[in-house]
Request: fold
Amino acid sequence: MKVRTRSSAIIGTLCLVASLALTTASADEPAALRQAAKVTLKKVATAQNPIAGTAGPGGTVWIAERAGRVRVLDGEGLGGPVLDISGETTTDGERGLLGIAFDNEFAHFYISFTNLQGISTVDEFAVRDGRIRPETRRTVLTQTQPYANHNGGDIKFGPDGYLYIAFGDGGSGGDPHGNGQNLDTLLGKLLRIDPSGGKPYAIPPDNPFVDDPNAKDEIWAYGLRNPWRFSFDAGTRDLLIGDVGQSAWEEIDRAPANSKGGENYGWSQMEGNHPFRGGTEPANHVRPIHEYDRTGRGCSVTGGYVYRGKAIPDLKGQYVFSDFCDGTVRALQMENGEVTGVSDLGVNGGSVVSFAQGGNGELYVLDLRGSISRIDPA
Reply:
């Protein structure tokens, strides 16, 4: 879903079988591969192109299928669709149903998708007794997309109760419209809005560019190419973003829990720690906490979560992520927001398009080809 431009076949089909391990890491990594926690992948369900997941009420995990269906995973397995918008979206390019989220009280459910015209759309549904009320549906936000790739589409509620929305730079390749560094567009940004505070939404008064007439009030962070998957650490409340690179470097970005927003992650002047096509590093560039190059099998980072479950004590506090083409599940060991080591967890999730975090902190790996697996102790 969030693949670099030079892999046009992957962008078009999104069903590449990836099973080989990534063999190289960033040259300035603080340590070589460290001893990993011992884990295994336990397949718990099969879906049609599972693409996103979120913790639901009653210990469930809700799973989005790219074509437009939402299904609920519980102790009995994966149920039938509880929502189906397949007639309203398309799987052309990198489009489809791209993200789902509940608010922090499970009172509203949100979907992020590209409609038949290719417009990114975030809709809201009221929830009662753990069930969607279709008649309450309303559109919260839309954004025109100039191309069928780099649409982003991930959505999450932060610990602050606000809705964060990730949009890519609009697509094509190399950010031809300069959206990443342009504060007058929502493209290439992470947004922060209050969907319950206004119609269709309100702007949090402490957003970083509220008083800037040359910037969109919704922007929380910028300089992103395709922030395909992001998450908040349930322990520290830090924000971590997996931002897909252009041609050479994949990166993971961070903002601390006490951030006031406004981070500039550099695109398209920078690709990771490196100037992109003669670009100049912005003075306020926030460098990635981790990057890896493409000399191995990796091509498109899939951001994950900091593990806060109880089943695998040796993994606690580590950021788990993967790569769509490589499929190797890896973990960053961190101290005070800095990476101290990286480990190969010794399992391969296939075409890893996303992770999901259950309400108990356990993690699930979503393979776009169909498998939903939980990361269990070996």
Summary: The chain has a mean pLDDT of 92. The two ends are 30 Å apart (CA to CA). The first strand starts at residue 39 and ends at 46.
